[in-house]
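Entry 14. Ran structure prediction on the chain below.
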Amino acid sequence: MASVPTLAELLKPSNKRVESFKVGPAYDPETVGLAVEQPNSSTTLATTGCENPVSGDSHCGHDFGVTLTDEQKRLSSNISRPCDARPREAML
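Output, structure tokens:
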């Protein structure tokens, strides 16, 4: 299980990342990761804070990219985006 739902969240400073997110099959090609709304799932992952970074569910650490400009972050998400950017459920 990941501690951030999207590449966009990973590129934020850890203290600015979401503390919980829905988990399911819906994909968001703009943020490169889980969609905010997961209509086919009721599972929500609550991450832990920086007080316990080795918990496996901490949203802290991995501070790669936090100093990139918004434009650089946008370009990096375009590189990471799948070639077929249709929602995953549309491909099934």
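Strands lie at 20-23, 27-28, 33-34, 43-46. Will compare against last week's run tomorrow.
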